[in-house]
Specification:
The chain has seven helices and ten strands. By secondary structure, the chain is of the alpha+beta class. The strands form three sheets. A six-stranded antiparallel beta sheet has the order 4-5-6-9-8-7. Strands 1-2 form a two-stranded antiparallel sheet. It has a two-stranded parallel sheet with strand order 3-10. The structure holds 2-amino-2-deoxy-6-O-phosphono-alpha-D-glucopyranose (GLP).
Length: about 240
């Protein structure tokens, strides 16, 4: 009997492989059956099998090792979708060692959107700090954060590679974040982002933009973070508000 599905064959094969990964039959680091083996197993063309494998790779579930085959990828790093939890804290919750590589610390003049978000006048000074964030030494995100200069003068003196910025704000400047607004949207890596995040140009990324405030409503941070789509999954929990 013909199966009751109108999904393309390559999607069905991909889903069967996803099922084998999620059930644990194929574990991280294991080789996925080769194109030749899959052709024999599913009795389809090599093109179809290749499409299924490419889809797995694009979704971050598998990695191609040139000349060697396709392997099951490590599971994505899960992060709670809570804009007030710092990167350091997110990693600590998962038992992952956080790291940072500073690409830029700059004082610049506020303009346009940055001035609006941080409640600054055009031309007022702000810090721009760009860091590649790593988890267990693997690049996970490219963060570009802006802070009003007057709130955290001299922040560049601190070790921004080893210390959490949210901690520095709290411990050195007495600034506690109390509220934040965050948005998420998909994008793809340009050449620079691809290089620092160690992905291919055009690879999927998630852009998180946030503005964080103190309890009295002073804007403290405006950030644009680019997370690797193949390595990150955001998790959130919803509750029906009580009447
Ligand atoms: C998250 C936020 C960033 C913030 C960072 C601080 O990644 N998206 O906007 O700058 O945390 O992290 P840490 O305190 O580890 O430096």
């Amino acid at each position: 009997m013909r199966p009751a599905t109108s999904l393309p064959i390559y999607v069905q094969i991909r889903d069967a492989l996803i099922e084998r990964i999620q059930s644990g039959e194929l574990k991280p680091g294991m080789r996925i059956p080769s194109e030749r083996e899959l052709v024999a197993e599913y009795r389809v063309s090599r093109m179809t099998v290749r499409q299924a494998l490419t889809d797995l790779v694009n979704r971050g579930l598998a990695e191609r090792i040139r000349g060697n085959g396709t392997y099951v990828a490590e599971p994505k790093v899960e992060q709670v979708l809570n804009p007030l939890v710092s990167f350091t804290e997110q990693m600590a919750r998962r038992g992952i060692v956080p790291g940072a590589r500073v690409l830029e610390t700059q004082v610049m003049a506020a303009h346009g959107r940055l001035a609006d978000a941080l409640g600054l006048r055009i031309g007022e000074r702000l810090y721009r700090i760009v860091r590649v964030r790593t988890g267990n030494n693997l690049p996970l995100a490219l963060e570009t954060s802006h802070f009003p200069y007057e709130l955290c003068r001299g922040i560049e003196r601190f070790d921004l590679e080893r210390r959490s910025i949210y901690r520095i704000l709290d411990e050195e400047y007495g600034i506690r974040l109390a509220r934040a607004i965050e948005s998420i949207e998909p994008t793809v890596a340009n050449e620079f982002e691809a290089e620092v995040l160690d992905v291919s140009v055009g690879a999927p990324l998630l852009l998180l933009e946030r503005t964080a405030y103190t309890s009295t409503g002073t804007p403290v941070e405006f950030a644009k973070d680019l997370y690797r789509g193949d390595r990150t999954r955001f998790v959130t929990e919803g509750r029906i508000p009580s009447p």
